[in-house]
Amino acid sequence: MPQPAEAEGVPAELVGPLERGLSVLRAIASGPDVRHRPGDLARTTGLARSTVDRVATTLVRLGVLRAEGRDLLLAPRAAELGNAYLASCGLPGLLGPHAAALADALDESVSLAVPDRDGVRFLTQSTRHRAMAISFRPGGLLPAERCAPGALFAAHWDAGDHERWRARRAEDPLDTAFPSVPPRPTAPPDEVEAEFLDRVRRARESGFAVDDQLIEPGLVSVALPVRAPDGSVVCAVSVVSHTSRHTAGSLTERALPPLRSAVAAMESALSARGAAPGAAAGATPGTSPGEAPGAMPPAAGTSPGVAPAAMPPAAPGASAGPGPAPEITPAPAGAGLKEELGSGFLQSLARGLDVLRAFGGVRGPVRLSELARLTGLPRATARRSLITLRHLGYVREEPGGFVVLPRVLELGYARLSGLSLPEIATPHLVALVLRVHESASVAVLDGDDIRYVARVAGTRIMHIDITVGTRLPAYATSMGRVLLGDLAEADRAERLGRITPEALTPHTVTTHQGLDEVVAATAARGYGWVEQELEEGLRSLAVAVTDGSGRAVAAVNVALHAGRATPEESLAALLPPLRETAGLISSDLAAVARFSRVATG
After folding, report:
1. Strand pairing partners for 395?
2. How many other C-beta atoms can be found within 10 angstroms of the C-beta atom of residue 208?
3. Residue environment code for 49-85, b if the CB has 16+ CB neighbours within 10 A, otherwise e
4. CA-derived radius of gyration, the chain
5. CA–CA separation, 157 vs 26, rounded Å?
6. Is the pLDDT of residue 271 over 70?
7. How far apart are CA 143 and CA 193, in angstroms?
8. Phi-psi region of 385 (alpha: psi -120 to 50; beta: other; left: phi over 0)
9. Which of 27, 89, 105, 336 is most enclosed, with most CB atoms within 10 A?
10. Phi and psi at residue 571, in whole multiples of 5°?
């Protein structure tokens, strides 16, 4: 895999645990394998097995990794590291809407990419929904010589950049370290270099670059640079198509005029923002980072449901639901975990990750004093972390302060940005079922129904038997009432007005007034409760799963036989762990969806 940049020599103040922790995280994030054993990581990184174990323990407790048996996997909260760069540079929020508009106008995929030393790192993509899909995951890295933006960026390389590129090519001539592209067919190095330098020359002369099936057969693209007010290249915008629709020439002819207009609009936006030099990292110091919230298909519902004929018992404690997912901001690694785990917890690794995440709280260059304030760390501690991150190529020091670099996206962002809601939710459902021994599910609103997107069956002999993909009427389910209750008042009235409730059991609420009342009560109470309204003997309790803005995008429930316990006993036993699970899913979803679209599955 591409190695991080290193300054000459090792800084005397290098934070060893932070360096080793990021080495393990890179090893887990790279390559095709999702699951990793500590022993394999020790061999890959060259670290002692005991060191890997301590790093893994720390990263699991911080929520960056999760453990399944002896396997280690990336956890969704690792996306917060990449989010720090995306928020700091501000490009997805500022330029993403222009890219989306261009994609709509051309009916082709459009992507934004930034230079990452001798590679090209993708930030966002507006895709088209076709059988022949073209999609680069945000955070994915491509070799500069195998994509159109690479020729644009290489036009500004210096001698050192060219030497690094040649060294990487010599070490990995087949591009096996780039999982986003198929291995390169064997070709003489001189031929590859000559062809690339010729494309760089043409890009410099014409101002645009073309990819004629360089990434893989059938894929063509044309790209233009986007410049900051000072003339430096901030990023490149590409229009991507397939040879079944265009040749490289016809795509260039068709796309170049609207592409130029889109780039002009992007550069106007950068000028209006006052973008400073700093290319991919750049932005104005001191402003709060704009962001493009991860889009989820419109679904709603935040609280659970109730029927007058079967009002649930009062919940112990607060009556609110899980509420908005917590803001993704750095939380200083306190002494609690260190006291609990002792030498098994690497506090300096935790503090270093705090510093990295803190860049997401301020746009552009950040001074040491501001990072220390954001993290709650002493200046000296924050400074040592910055020295280490600079040595590893994740931050750069500029006259105005430190800037986080796109290389941070290699720490798992590409893999995590492709997670779906079921993939995010399922590990938490498994933990919930093991805790309460009842079936648990996640569903989204789909028309007037709910649609199950994730489910884990209970461990009892008699359990609720529903499969993923099942649709049920929203009005008679706890998750449906949660989602209906989260709709805006006008939307809720319109939705409920067109539903004709049917008596599925003698307990089902069947009048419009009754349905209005139970959905309103659900929204006010903060959890949903349905007692034998969908099916005789079936009891269900649900709460909302929210995105980063607090909007309910799904609901999670526990379903059980009504004869197993009294309503009071069920509520007391199930509501706290259910709320905790909803909060964990919501936090993970907010981390992944902050700059990426999350599919509901």
Report:
1. 404
2. 22
3. eebbbbbbbbbebbbbbbeeeeebbbbbbbbbbbbbb
4. 26
5. 26
6. yes
7. 13
8. alpha
9. 89
10. -65, -45
What is the pLDDT confidence band of residue 187, given thresholds at 50, 70 and 90?
A: confident
CA-nearest of 556, 546, 527 to 598 is 546
Which 3 state secondary structure label does DSSP give 593?
Answer: helix
State how far the Cα of 178 lies from the Cα of 450, in Å rounded to an integer.
Answer: 40
Which among 478, 519, 477 is positioned nearest to 496, based on CA atoms? Answer: 519
pTM value is: 0.85
Helices (H), 14-78: 16-29, 38-45, 49-61
Please state, in angstroms and rounded to a whole number, the distance separating the CA atoms of residues 13 and 18: 12
- Calpha distance 465→36 (Å, rounded): 33
**Residue matched to tokens 């973008």:** 275
Cβ–Cβ < 8 Å for 222, 148: yes
As given in the structure block, the two tokens for residue 92 are 């997805």
Q: What contacts 549, CB < 8 A, 6 or more positions away?
A: 293, 324
Tens of pLDDT, residue by residue over 141-180, are 999 999 999 999 999 999 999 999 999 999 988 888 888 7
The angle formed by the CA atoms of residues 137, 142 and 148, to the nearest 5 degrees, is 100
CB atoms within 10 A of CB 265: 16
Give the model confidence (pLDDT) of 444-487 as tens digits. Answer: 999 999 999 999 998 765 556 788 999 999 999 999 999 999 99
Sign for the CA dihedral angle at 199, 233, 293, 121 comes to: positive
Average pLDDT over residues 388-417: 95
Tokens of 318: 């607060």
> What is the distance between the alpha carbons of residues 205 and 273, in angstroms, rounded to a whole number?
29
Handedness of CA 179, 185, 186, 192 (dihedral sign): negative
| Position 330 confidence tier, pLDDT thresholds 50, 70, 90 | very low
Residues 6+ away with beta carbon under 8 Å from 370: 362, 401
CA distance 59 to 19: 13
Residue type, 380: A
